[in-house]
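Example S7 (structure tokens).
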């Protein structure tokens, strides 16, 4: 039997971050993952300002910011017409931009930092059952091995075995629309320093720059193909993207499809079992909040567990669970509103675009959106850092 302070199930960004925090704060961890190796593809591609702030003490932020594309502006457009500009340049942070970087890169940097701290991920190591008692948790792997820990963290995603084994409910639903995702090489009329959400009568398409000259394309469609080809992505851009200078798809490097759920776990804690990331909450990719919210969970949970393991009161774990669930509700609600706007019916789209165009002229609306999308509005929510009202921003450091 392998014994440790904390067993972390899942070696994605959330599990790796939790492990880094605990290890750097002086506690033993074991990280297991059912996959033989980490993902080489990229779903999440957005790292926001608040996430970079949270990761800074743990030695990961410099590598991320050196690799990623710094995009100082997010815009909502109706083809070529600018509806809502959301500037990040004035945010009160050292990172006044959205960082566009592949999830595969993010995981690689996190794994490198964890390895530097002397911890390796056990792969493939699929947890099948967990059982807890007054002093700890025992996990059994598919190959019969057992692991014993004082606490267990479920960072094993949407279909979490940990959540299921703990008997924690996961209420919510699934959006009707299908989403297509592709990383492509483009030429033509797409800027390199801006994340653009295009609205059109035909629907939504997001175009965002990535490192190495790539662009991330995300779009809602009735039924997305399993592997979108260049012709499919080109049709999306021709009917929804820029018109004056069209974007041309030169190559599809990778593509996928997915359905979007909106669910939150009934609780983030069951005794010595705790949840973080997609095991605790999933929602629309609108606004690029998913991985960022998960990394926030990881830092907060890791710091709370470190205090408890050092002899602090165990009710700090209740504090984690009580604080993080309302944050998830807030983010899920924001993502839901953005998704509802993006997927409005054809009849409502002209009205939607008119209202957005008027709202986009109001500086307070633009500031509020920048504050929310960057995650800086969550500083005051159990972060230990005072919040700053977005009406007045100091000059960024």
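Recovered sequence:
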């Amino acid at each position: 039997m392998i014994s440790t302070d904390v067993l972390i199930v899942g070696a994605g960004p959330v599990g790796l971050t939790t492990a880094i925090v605990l290890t750097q704060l002086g506690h033993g961890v074991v990280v297991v993952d059912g996959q033989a190796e980490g993902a080489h593809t990229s779903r999440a591609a957005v790292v926001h300002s608040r996430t970079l702030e949270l990761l800074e003490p743990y030695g990961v932020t410099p590598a991320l910011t050196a690799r990623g594309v710094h995009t100082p502006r997010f815009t909502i457009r109706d083809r070529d017409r600018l509806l809502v500009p959301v500037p990040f340049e004035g945010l009160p942070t050292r990172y006044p931009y959205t960082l566009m970087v592949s999830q595969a890169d993010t995981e690689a940097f996190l794994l490198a930092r964890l390895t530097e701290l002397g911890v390796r991920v056990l792969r493939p190591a699929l947890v099948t059952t967990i059982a807890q008692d007054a002093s700890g948790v025992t996990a059994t792997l598919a190959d019969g091995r057992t692991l014993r820990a004082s606490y267990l963290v479920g960072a094993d995603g949407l279909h979490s075995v940990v959540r299921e084994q703990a008997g924690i409910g996961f209420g919510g639903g699934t959006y009707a629309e299908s989403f297509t995702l592709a990383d492509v090489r483009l030429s033509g009329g797409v800027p390199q320093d801006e994340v653009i959400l295009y609205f059109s009568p035909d629907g939504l398409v997001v175009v965002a720059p990535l490192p190495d000259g790539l662009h991330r394309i995300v779009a809602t469609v009735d039924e997305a193909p399993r592997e979108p080809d260049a012709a499919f992505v080109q049709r999306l851009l021709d009917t929804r993207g820029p018109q004056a200078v069209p974007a041309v798809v030169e190559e599809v490097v990778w593509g996928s499809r997915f359905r979007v759920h909106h669910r939150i776990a009934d609780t983030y804690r069951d005794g010595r079992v705790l949840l973080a990331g997609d095991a605790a909450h999933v929602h629309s990719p609108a606004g690029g909040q998913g991985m960022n919210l998960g990394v926030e969970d990881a830092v907060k949970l890791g710091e709370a567990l470190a205090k408890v393991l050092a002899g602090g009161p165990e009710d700090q774990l209740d504090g984690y669970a009580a604080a993080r669930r309302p944050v998830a509700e807030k983010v899920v609600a924001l993502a839901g509103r953005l998704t509802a706007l993006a997927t409005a019916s054809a009849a409502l789209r002209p009205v939607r675009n008119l209202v957005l165009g008027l709202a986009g002229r109001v500086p307070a609306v633009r500031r509020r959106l920048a504050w929310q999308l960057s995650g800086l509005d969550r500083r005051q929510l159990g972060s230990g850092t005072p919040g700053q009202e977005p009406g007045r921003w100091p000059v960024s450091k």
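Notes on this example. The two ends are 49 Å apart (CA to CA).
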